[in-house]
Amino acid sequence: MSAIAQLQYKKLRWQRSKSSSLARQREVFLAAFTFLFFIWWDKFWQNNTSSTRSKRAEWLVRNMLELGPTFIKIGQSLSTRVDLLPPEYISTLAQLQDKVPAFSAKEARDIIELELGKSLYTIYRDFDEIPLAAASLGQVHRATLYSGEEVVVKVQRPGLKKLFDLDLLAVGKLLKVFRRYFAWTRKYNLEGIYQEFFTILYQEIDYAIEGSNADRFRKNFEGYPRIVVPKIYWDYSTSMVLTLEYVPGIKIDDRQALEACGLNPKEINQLGICCYLKQLLQDGFFHADPHPGNLAVSPSGSLIFYDYGMMAEVKTMAKDQMVKTFFAVLRKDTNEVVDTLMSMGFIEPIADMSPIKRMLKFVLDRFTERPVNIYEFEQIKGEVVAIFEKQPFRLPPQMTYLLKSLTTLDGIARILDPEYNFTTAAQPFVKSIVLTRGRGNTLGALAQQAKDFLVYQLNKPSRMEILLERLEERIERGELMIQVKSSESDRTLKRINIAVKALIYACLTGFLVLAGAVLLVGTNGTYTSWAIAAFIGAFFSGFSLIRALVQLSIREKIDNIAEQ
C-alpha cells in the first residue's frame, strides 16, 4: 500500500494539533536529521539497493504528509528532479502531485459560507461535497451556478497562514544549522532559494492573486485558440475561495487516453514546448508548476492550464540572456551558451573552463536532436568528475522555479514522445517569430535572433568541416594528455591526504586507549578521572578515524569511475 493510501482516511498530525513555534521546530528538525541519518547509515553499510531506496522514499513521503503543505510543496518540487534523485524517490514523491488527502466537506462548506457571506445553496444551485481533487494548499469541488454554468470551487485548507509562519521560522533555523555544521551546504545559495520559495508560497494562499494571474495569462494567449485558460467568476471569489469555469480534460501524461481520443502525443508535445517558449522568451511570465495534475488536454487537442497560484516572472535582463541561450543551443554554439549561463549566474567562473565547455559541447552535439541519455555520459567521465569536484554550477534563487518548470516539462515530453527532438519541436515557435511583425524591443530581439539562426542553418558547414574544426581545437588545447594527467595527479594527492589523516587518527586512538588502560589499571584507580578523559578522547578520535575511512572509500570509488 502506498504512503498516500495509508494516510488517506486519517487526520494528519499538522491538522490535529495547534503547534507552538518550539514544537514545530522540533518536528522539522527530527524529521530532517532522521532522514539524514538513514542516508548516512545506508552509505556506511553500503546498503543502497533499490528496495532500500524505495523504503526510504516511502518514509519520506509519509513524513512530508505529516509535516503538512510546506513540505508537500517541497516534495512536489523534488519529484521532478530526475537529475538529483534516484527513480525510486521520483516515483514515490510523484504521489504528492495530485493525491494529497482531502479535508472534510463540512470544513469546506464553512469556509465558503464565511468567505462569501451567504449560505452555500444560495450561491450554488448544486455543490458536490466529494472533491474532484485535493492538493497541498486546497481542494476542488464541482458546482453549478444558478445561471446554469458548470464551475469548480477551489477552497483553501484551514489554518495555512499560521502554519506557514511556523514553517518559515523552523526551516530558516534548520538552514542555519546546516550552514554552520555541514560545509557542503555552503556551496549552494540555500538561503536565497528559501526566501524565494516562501515568497511564492505566501502568494499562493491568496486566491485573489491567483485569479489575477489567470486573467493575465489568458490575455497573453489571446488569439491562441489551442491554449485554454478557465474563466474566473469574481463575484464568487475571495482570498480563500476561487470559483472558476469547469474545463475537463485528459491528464497530459496519459498517453493511452490521448491516443484513444485520436490525438497525436507528438503534436501535443510540440504545442506544449512552443507554449512555454512563448511564456519564457516572449511574455516573461510563466506557469511555474506544470506538473501533470495542472496540465490537461481537451478532446479537440487544446492544452488546458489549471492552478495559477505558482506563477513567476523573468526579468528583462534575464529574458534577453535566455533568448541568446535558446538560439545558441539551436546553433550548438558552446562558447555563447557558457557566456550566457555565466551572465545569468548558473555557472561560477573559474580559471579552467575547458571541462565545462567540453561537457556542454558533448550535450549540445548529442542531445539537441534527441532526449538526454544519462548513460552516454560514460564517454566523458573525467570531465564530469572534474566539474563535480570544483562545483562550478549553482542555482540563482530567482531561477529556481524556471529550472523546476523545465525539468518537469522534460519529464512530460519524454512520456508523450520518448524520442522527442527539441530542435524540431521548437521550429514552429522560431518560424512564428521570424514571420511576426510585432511591436516592442523583446519581440524585435527575438525576431533578429531567429533570422540569424535561419541564416546559420543555410550557411552551416559540412559534417567533415565540423569534425576537422573540433580536432584542431582539441590539438590546440592539448587536452589529450595534459588534462588527464593533471586530473589523475590531483585525485591521487587528495586520496593520500585523506589516508594520512586516517593514519594519524588511528595512532591517536591507539595511544589514548593504551594511556587510559595504564591510568586505570596501573595506578590502582588513583587517576580514574584522567583515564575516563583518555577513553572519551579515544572515542572521538575513533569516530574521526571511521569518518576518514568512509571518505577514503568514497574517494576511491569516484576515482575508479573516472579511470574506467
Write a structural description.
The protein is α+β, with helices and mostly antiparallel strands and 564 residues long. It contains 23 helices and 11 strands. Strands 1, 2, 3, 4 and 6 form a 5-stranded antiparallel β-sheet that branches. It has a 4-stranded mixed β-sheet with strand order 5-10-9-7, with helices on one face. Helix 3 packs antiparallel against helix 4, helix 4 (50-67) packs antiparallel against helix 5 (69-78) and helix 17 runs antiparallel to helix 23. The two termini are 41 Å apart. Mean pLDDT is 78; it is low at 437-441 and 479-485.
Q: State the major sheet.
A: 5 strands, antiparallel
Distance between the termini: 41 Å
Categorize the overall geometry: globular
Report helical residue fraction.
55-70%
What's the average pLDDT?
78
Unreliable residue runs: 437-441, 479-485
**Which strand-content bin applies to the residues?**
5-15%
The count of β-strands is 11
Structural class: alpha+beta
Tell me the radius of gyration: 28 Å
Number of helices: 23
Quick summary of this structure?
By secondary structure, the chain is of the alpha+beta class. The protein is built from 23 helices and eleven strands.
